[in-house]
Design brief:
Blueprint (H helix, E strand, L loop, with lengths): L1 H22 L7 H27 L4 H24 L4 H4 L1 H8 L1 H8 L1 H28 L6 H14 L1 H24 L12 H13 L4
Helix pairs in contact: 1-2, 1-3, 2-3, 3-5, 3-8, 3-10, 5-8, 6-7, 7-8, 8-9, 9-10
Length: 214
Amino acid sequence: MLIIICLSGLTAGGAAAASYLRTAARSRRSWMYGAKIILVSVCAALSAGFCAFRLESLGTGMQKTVKVLAAFPVCLAAAVIDAEENRIPDRLVLLLPAVRLFLVPLDCFGFGWAQGLKLLLWSFFSGTFLFLILILLSCLSKGGFGMGDVKLLSAVGFSAGFYTALYSLAAGLLLSASAAAVLLILRKKKLKDRIAFAPFLFLGLLISCCLGKV
């Protein structure tokens, strides 16, 4: 189990650094840019390692654990970029479906080809259903819930699973609403101002893993 935790942390840290390095557009020549890469890597490594330990203690299967942990570096890199630049790069989001397809042989090896293909079909259903629901949410919020958030959450649903994305969304919405209320009370934000949602989605993913809601 210790080996799994260490590998999860190192992989997530490296992936987060690579994701942020390839997709962040600003401050590339600043020393702060290098510091942010290190910080993102450390945070991804620690969070993934902790969640690997938590999911292992809950008896979560290896296949499910790997799928959930794959979302950590992508969501963390997206959180940092969204907070800095108010955008979530498409090529960053596409990493999650790519990882999910790469893990199809792992499902087939662990559960058999028939069950592995069923799980893949469920992934497609989860991602598509979440995309449609989130598009509706984006329209109802009149742009408050951006298309980058829609695509990121749909990718999380496709990769990590429908319920993982759903619990992460619920926790993220609760956290973002609380933060927005505090900022409004302190007059740091106005009602029309946008608050980056990706950081709260990452925290929601972390909370859902801690609670075993994956």
